[in-house]
Fold this sequence. Notes:
The structure holds 2 protein chains of 2 kinds. Chain A has one domain: MetI-like (MetI-like fold, Orthogonal Bundle). In chain A, a hairpin with a 3-residue loop joins strand 1 and strand 2 (10-11). A two-stranded antiparallel sheet of chain A has the order 1-2. Chain A is built from 9 helices and 2 strands. In chain A, 33% of the residues are buried. Chain A is flat. Chain A is mainly alpha-helical. The N and C termini of chain A lie far apart (64 Å). Chain B is an alpha/beta fold. Chain B is 38% helix and 26% strand. In chain B, helix 6 (172-187) links the parallel strand 7 (160-164) and strand 8 (192-195). In chain B, helix 5 packs parallel to helix 6 (172-187). Chain B is globular and about 55 Å long. The A-B interface holds A 56-57, 150, 152-153, 155-163, 166, 170-171, 174-175, 178, 251-255 and B 51, 53, 55, 71, 76-77, 79-80, 82-84, 86, 88, 90-95, 103-104, 107-109, 136-138, 149, 152-153, 156.
Amino acid sequence: MEPILWFGWFRADIIAEYAMMFWRGLQMTVLVTVICIIQGTALGLAIGLARLAEARHSPARQLCRYLLRWPSTVYVSFFRGTPLFVQILLIHFAVLPLFINPTDGLLIAGETARNLKQNYGAFISGVIALTLNSGAYISEIFRAGIQSIDRGQIEASRSLGLSFARTMYHIVLPQAFRRMLPPLGNNAIALLKDSSLISAIGLAELAYAARTVAGAYSRYWEPYLSISFMYWTLTLGLAWAIKRLEARYGRGDTR
Amino acid sequence: MDEVIRVEGLTKSFGDHQVLRGIDCSVKASEVVCVIGPSGSGKSTLLRCLNGLEEASGGRVLVHGISVHDNNTDIDALRSEIGMVFQRFNLFPHKTVLDNITLAPTKVRGVSEEEARQRAHDLLVKVGLLDKINAYPNQLSGGQQQRVAIARALAMQPAIMLFDEPTSALDPEMVGEVLSVMQTLAEEGMTMMVVSHEMGFARRVANRVLFMDEGVLVEEGTPEEVFDTPREERTRRFLSNIL
């Protein structure tokens, strides 16, 4: 292809030549982000509730402390206290082979394991690492959100005869969710950007596409500037969507 | 007359601080009992022990003969029989007035959506707030919020209503509207236990007045007995301070 120069220095033809690769990378980035937001939120809710678990009578009281509060606290501490990059490497090269391994995988072994690792290994590790990581951060958002709800709300609900679970579902979480939207949005944006780290274990997402192009042409402005704009567009879109959500669910919360 | 609530030797401590030091009392059906006393005397704690919002440290509370603080008691079922109105209203701010009232009947009692709405409608007529049926709590004044809170508790058709200083957080001009709703309830035969600083209300409406001080039930009797001819020195001192 003939070199096409924009502004005298930007080789647009390189981007055009690899357009399909960037497009696939973009799709992969969005896919990973969406999966991890959903799973991370579910995990974060579970961990956040576990960190708040309390019971009045034994043995439930001890169970809450040793089986819920304690492990969840350690979990959050570990995933917030170590670099995501290291977590990705650890899960991909150390943890995953334990479970998916052609010879002696604990979960899947044999030919299936070989194929799975070959074709989806980086995807699985990346999604797991990012989910576990964001779950830790999101659990803190849930915990703070739930704790910010006035005790009187819980007392009013319980005194009407609603169980703890129903009180959470109907009273606490809907109100907490509104307050959690801004930090959840920030977290989603961070997650989108952090997904680029998965390129290190070979997942063909946006950053990986840029690296490939850079390697082929020894040109760096074009691929990295291009994906920067793509990430930027995506984060702007996310920020806009979150703002819409806040506007929609903000009703009735001003006192 | 059958007893709705019976309290036997109830004690409650927060850490080293003993708030209730052995309370014995009871509330009979259709009776209106007002609990008065200086702040910090344990009135609210007593009320909150009655529906298990507070754990008892010792003694027991029986509602219709069922022990509130027993591990095997279905506390949710028991609480649905006990309406509670709080000092700070505690309406659910993300729900409309209608949804505040219909939530518990539909979810806990299994009342149909339609019947719950009919009930809410009737109760709002009763507390004079039918025009606010679709409003959110933050669009209401304090007095209106408290009246909705009363309607919300009544929607469960409880056997007894507990009022925890229901007018203490209200502007003076709104106290009357809440008290008059409570008086109507009392006249209709609702069993009520009211913690309040409204001595006028206690005198007018109560069948019995309990005076508490420092976690002890100092004196009880008819309003005339307690207010006009108090037997205990502490009661006299309290009354002379506030009247």
